[in-house]
Specification:
- This protein has 632 residues and is mainly α.
- Among the domains are: 182 residues, Serine Threonine Protein Phosphatase 5, Tetratricopeptide repeat (Alpha Horseshoe), CATH 1.25.40.10; 125 residues, no CATH class.
- Helix content is 68%, strand content 4%.
- The chain has a six-stranded mixed beta sheet, covered by helices on one side.
- Strand 1 and strand 2 form a beta hairpin.
- The longest helix is centred in the first third of the chain and has 29 residues.
- The radius of gyration is 27 Å and the shape is globular.
- Belongs to the PPR family. PCMP-H subfamily.
């Protein structure tokens, strides 16, 4: 019996020691101490190769190609390279760090693929814009799970193959899979893309029928923080930013304390909504919760403050971080780029290189974006070459889109078109519309017609080519061309996206459209704008009636210009905020040339900083000047 007790006690101690060692190893990996983790626990890793997954996760997070290759070599040496669990982690790693071809090669060599292997590849192909190969993997699967269907449906809808997405939903239902929140989010976007009201209503009815079942599931999920984080992250990933904030508030009301994972999702939703007040409140809760040192949380804060127009607060969050990584640096470079601070973005990248952080594909998207919005053509092309030659990164569609924008803004339209037609990835509507916008800026009517056809081939219901071509005709006073385009839009039931501006005052969001009379202060706003316009004209302001693309007399055009949505929002802010406080206005479309000039005058007359975020960047108006230097 004593001998049995001895062996029993020894076995218990061995298990306890192993658990302690594993926990310590995982803790070191999560903190980024990879070399220490590997050197101290080498024997444990060789005896349990699944521990390699924690090292792989770190490489994925850091997006370090050199580290990833070294780790892969060690896995091959260990003899566990045929392990499906480890192979799936490697597949995910290569797809996330922009090494799709390596992932494809590995996938082809895997002796035992499972559903997870195929799901990873479908997502990887979707992210690279290669729906044909994604569908080939999908069709070749003998078994699928709900994540497989979600990935394929979401991919089709993302690239505006809305009918195919809805057809796949029907097929999914026929084989016995019930759509979840992720599926429904994708399908509803597909209905919106098709203007499919009946289909949308059917989905809505289905959602309502699921409510009772969902309440039961919510009760089960919401028994711990992990369940709440799952719900919140799901809503965030489906773009339901307002629902995320509602869920977050409910989580706190029932007594659960959010953690760093919760905060990343919630702060990202504040970024989407550009609600500074809520973002600041959540930042305070981050500090109280002790999560203010987490790199992921800080990266989200940098993005949130940047998207809310507070670049200084982004920089403050960046500088206060004790431990940084490539994601943090890339977030700050992106913030500078979004605010038109190209030189600062480049300087930060150079500091990042000096500190030996390895730039990833996201870093280069941010750099190219910054260069395009500051006219730094030569520097932008240098970064594009550097990305490929020094860092060995394969350009994605986002990189090519930034380069097309860079060339287009500089007037190199032929070069931009040649790049699209010769690039190795399939063009989408966004890259063609980017070039189409450049045609409008440089008044290239012939090319605009050709490029508009390319957009309409991919999406016949896209309003952008009609609107941009119409604007080009209107600026040349070719009203017959404008009339024909508008008639074509009516016949094909193509709807133009209305311009909307919004701002936050005392935690309340106010929204305006052009000529909006629905606001309770509408009359006061009109009177205020009348007085402001008179004062602006005394200072030399002349309304740019050419910015109004309608065939009407100048007096009517001037009235329309005066009541553009951003001017209404700025007037409300001037009426309701203390002198000297910056005004922040968000707009879903590009700021027109007249509003851009007018806001410069307003900033000087009222001695206010006015920050306007339009569809492509931030404009900081101060003392009669704009940070963009009239290059936007």
């Amino acid at each position: 019996m004593s001998c049995l007790r001895f062996f029993s006690k020894t076995a218990t101690e061995v298990v306890a020691n192993f658990i302690d060692s594993t926990e310590e190893f995982i803790n070191l990996c999560s903190k980024g101490h990879i070399k220490e983790a590997f050197n101290r626990f080498k024997s444990e890793i060789w005896s349990d190769p699944t521990l390699f997954s924690h090292l792989i996760q770190w490489c994925t997070l850091k997006k370090s190609l050199s580290c990833s290759k070294q780790l892969h070599s060690l896995i091959v040496t260990s003899g566990c390279s045929s392990n499906s669990f480890i192979c799936n982690h490697l597949l995910n790693m290569y797809s996330k760090i922009g090494q799709l071809q390596t992932a494809v090669t590995l996938f082809g060599l895997m002796p035992r693929r499972n559903i997870m292997s195929c799901n990873i590849m479908i997502n990887a192909y979707v992210q690279s814009g290669d729906l044909e190969r994604a569908r080939k993997v999908f069709d070749g699967m003998t078994k699928r799970n709900i994540a497989t269907w979600n990935a394929m449906v979401a991919g089709l809808v993302q690239f505006e193959f809305n009918e195919e997405g809805l057809s796949l939903l029907s097929e999914m239902h026929q084989v016995g899979f019930l759509p979840d929140e992720f599926t429904l989010g994708s399908v509803l976007r597909g209905c919106a893309g098709l203007r499919g009201l009946d289909a949308g209503r059917q989905i809505h009815c289905y959602v309502n029928e699921r409510k009772e079942r969902r309440v039961i599931r919510l009760n089960a999920l919401s028994r711990n923080v992990i369940g709440w984080n799952t719900l919140i992250a799901g809503k965030a990933q489906n773009g339901l930013a307002e629902d995320v904030l509602d869920q977050y508030n409910l989580m706190r009301m029932v007594g659960f304390r959010p953690d760093k994972i919760t905060f990343v999702s919630v702060i990202s939703s504040c970024s989407e909504l550009a609600t500074l007040g809520q973002g600041q409140q959540i930042h305070a809760e981050v500090v109280k919760a002790g999560a203010s040192l987490d790199v992921g949380v800080i990266s989200s804060l940098i993005s949130m403050y940047s998207r809310c127009g507070c670049l200084d607060d982004s920089m403050k969050a960046f500088l206060e971080c004790e431990y940084s990584d490539v994601v943090l640096w890339s977030s700050m470079i992106a913030a500078y780029g979004f605010h038109g601070k190209g030189e600062e973005a480049i300087n930060l990248f150079e500091q990042m290189e000096q500190k030996e952080f390895e730039a990833n594909d996201v870093t280069f998207v941010s750099l190219l974006y910054a260069c395009s919005h500051c006219g730094l053509k030569e520097k932008g092309m240098e970064f594009f070459d550097l990305m490929v030659k020094k860092y060995g990164l394969k350009p994605r569609l986002e990189h090519y889109t930034c380069v097309v924008d860079l060339l287009g803004r500089c007037g190199c339209l032929d070069e931009a078109e040649a790049l699209i037609r010769n690039m190795p990835v399939k063009a989408d509507t966004i890259i063609w519309k980017t070039l189409l916008s450049a045609c409008k800026i440089h008044k290239s009517t012939d090319m605009a017609g050709r490029i508009a056809e390319e957009v309409l081939k991919l999406n016949p219901q896209d309003a952008a080519p009609y609107v941009l071509l119409s604007n080009i005709h209107a600026s040349a006073k070719r009203w017959q061309g404008v009339s024909e385009l508008r008639e074509a839009m009516r016949e094909r039931n193509v709807k133009k996206e209305p311009g909307v501006s919004w701002l936050e005052i005392k935690n309340q969001v106010h929204q305006f459209t052009m000529g909006d009379k629905s606001h309770p202060s509408s009359m006061e706003i009109d009177l205020y704008l009348e007085e402001l316009a008179s004062e602006m004209k005394l200072r030399g302001y002349v309304p740019d009636t050419g910015a109004d693309m309608h065939d009407m007399d100048n007096e009517e055009k001037e009235y329309n210009l005066k009541h553009h949505s951003e001017k209404l929002a700025i007037a409300l802010a001037l009426m309701n905020t203390p002198a000297g406080v910056p005004i922040r206005v968000m707009k879903n479309l590009r700021v027109c040339s007249d509003c851009h000039v007018a806001i410069k005058y307003i900033s000087e007359i009222k001695n206010r900083e006015i920050i306007v975020r339009d569809s492509s960047r931030f404009h900081h108006f101060r003392n009669g000047k704009c940070s963009c230097g009239d290059y936007w």
